[in-house]
Amino acid sequence: KHHDLHTYTAIKSSGIKKGFYLNIDGGGDMGDTRHSTWGFFNGNHLKENFNLKGMNSIGNFHNFITEYCGFSDNGKVSGLAGYGKVRNNLKKNLEKLITVNYKGIFFDRKRFQTTECSPNNINLNSYSRHKILRPKSSKTNVSKICAGYLPEDVAATGEEIMVEKIILFLDKIKKKYLKKKVSAVFSGGLFLNVRINNRIEESNIFERCFFPMAPGDSGLALGGIFSEKINLRIKKSRFGISPSIGPSFDDKDILKIIKNFNINFTKPKNIFKDVAKSVHKGEIVGIFQGKAEYGPRSLGNRSILADPRTKLSKLKLNQKIKKRDWFMPFAPAVLDKNYKDYFSDNNPSLYMQKASKVKNKHKKIIPSAIHVDGTCRVQYVDKKIFPNFWKIIYEFKKITNLPIL
Q1: Greatest CA separation found in the chain?
Q2: Which of 34, 43, 57, 313 has the fewest CB atoms inside 10 Å of its own CB, making it the most exposed?
Q3: pLDDT for 4-46, tens place per residue?
């Protein structure tokens, strides 16, 4: 079932043998209409305590907030939230739509009309349904409450409500069911939200928190494999499994593409040093190496690299190359042995799944990698898991004394 697959993806990626699990998404699928499910696991055995079904997930609350802000991508709301303020009256009214008890979090979802598809807006340069159809925002109980407020303030207020309600729910679980601290895994599309993930960890409710590389529906296939007794040869570390499990291409494949597009090329003697030097010169470098990353994050195999020391990098990437909203943040990747120099937590993410706070003394050094709220969606570059990416950053460090790209 849909939500069980989410759970297996998280459990087996984490290496945690026994603990608590929580899944929250927009509403499962036609065969599994749960939107939230939680319980305890021991190995591959799941013991579900409670679930909620339908389209009343707090994930759908976030969808309504996203729609009001004029986006189709929830991640943009998280990016915009850093520029807004939590408005108390707005918060008070939106909170009336959400109920929390030990069974889960319920959103009183109301949509008053649907919108027509606009064929003129079809963009064939995209495979995502929501990007192609691009309907106008419809009227909902959330849009009625938010009317008149700035999108950035709605984003900030909505995100704060989500964080508070999830922590409140987990606190209820702790008081009722946890006699001692246990480790916990979290999955479902909601846990692509790095701000929520970080606050869960900071709440100190659990001994260890794990957020997998593909908590959304793209992780279900891997969950299917993990639900069976199938041994996969995947590199592991104490922070999770390697995400480099997708397809790879040899030199012959790559040369064919280069020649098809008539691109000039050279083959440097030391590719890692060559990339580091180019980035140091202010160039933007695309890297394509090894097996593709599983899940939605670029983690050093299919990535765009830039110098984090200059604000110009962020502007170039957002406006010139990716052509996306100016406010969207970029993520730093840091060498494993230097992680503690820049970040305080003891449970780093291999997958950019937490919005960690940078130590104050380093904030001015990497302005392009830090969001306006002082956090970073940082990747811990384990030498064993990401050997080639590690070497690139190490070469950059030799030039600049900075172990971050």
Answers
A1: 65
A2: 43
A3: 999 999 999 999 999 999 999 999 899 999 999 999 999 989 9
